[in-house]
Amino acid sequence: MNLKPFFSALRFLTVLPIPESWCGDENSFHKSPDYYPLVGLLIGLMLALLDIFLCWLLPVEVSSVLLLLVMIAISGALHLDGLADSADAFFSSRSQEKMLEIMKDSRSGPMGVTAIIIVLLFKLMLLLALPMLWRWQVIVLMPLAGRCALPTISAWLPYARSNGTAAFIRNGFSPKRLFIPLVTLAIPTFSLLGWVWGAIVTSAICCGVWLTGIYSRHKVGGFTGDTLGATCELVELLPPLCVVILAHRGMI
Predict the structure, then answer these.
(1) Which of 81, 149, 158, 162 has the most crowded CB, counting CB atoms within 10 A?
(2) Sign, Cα dihedral of 123, 124, 125, 129
C-alpha cells in the first residue's frame, strides 16, 4: 500500500514534523486530498483524548480554552487564514477579479479579523455548552467534518484561479473524491451518535458544505485555497451546534 499520499496530506494539513522524504513526489501530493478525511479523523481522536485528560485535570471552562488553542495550533492556523482572506474578499463588495486579488493579500482587514473572532468565540461557546455525555464524541467529529469538506468542495466546484496553491486538486480529481469523504464522515458519526442523531448531524454537515460551496461559486466562480480554509472552519461548527440544539430541546 502506498502511504506517501497520506503522509503528504498529514504534512500539508498539520504542523506535525513529517519528513519530506515520506511524502513522495508531486503525484503523491495530487492524490493527497483522498486522505484528508482520515487526517481529520486522526486529529479528532487526538483532540478527544487530550480533552478527556484536560477535563480530568482542570475545570471544563479552562479545558475548552486550551483545547481550542490546540485546535488552532495543530493546523498552524492554516484554515483561519483562509477564513480571514475569504471574509475580506467576500464582504468587500468588489468585482470577482478584485476579490481574488484581495485573497492573495497576506494582510487581514477588519472583516477578516472580525470573522476570526466570531468563529473562535462561537466555537468556544459551543464547546462549553456541549453535554459532557456527548463531549468527546463531538470533538472527534469536528475536525473530521471540516477535512471531509475540503475534497468534497474541490471535487464539485471548478478552481477559481488559473493557478495557485489549490490548483493541484483539479489534476487529482476522481469520483471517489466525493464518495470517500461521505463514507469517512458517516461511519464515525453514526457509530458515535447513533442512527437518528448521526443522520441529523451528517445531514447538517452535508447541507453546510453545499451552502458554502454555492456561496463561493456565486462570489468567485468556484473555490480557492482560502475558500476551502473558510469552509473547513465553518463546517467544524456544525457537529457541536447540532448536538447543543438537540440537548437544549431535551431531545438527547
Answers:
(1) 149
(2) positive
pLDDT bin (cut points 50, 70, 90) of residue 177 is confident
Range of the domain at 91: 37-248
Burial of 208 (C-beta count, 10 Å sphere; 0-12/13-18/19+): buried
Cβ-defined contacts of 93-99 (< 8 Å, 24+): 96/219, 96/220, 96/221, 99/219, 99/220
Side chain identity at residue 149, one-letter code: A
pTM score of the predicted model: 0.92
Neighbouring residues of 209: CB distance < 8 A, sequence distance ≥ 6? 148, 149, 152, 153, 231, 235
- Of residues 1 and 94, the one with the higher pLDDT is 94
In a domain, 159, yes or no: yes
Report yes or no on 10 lying in a domain: no
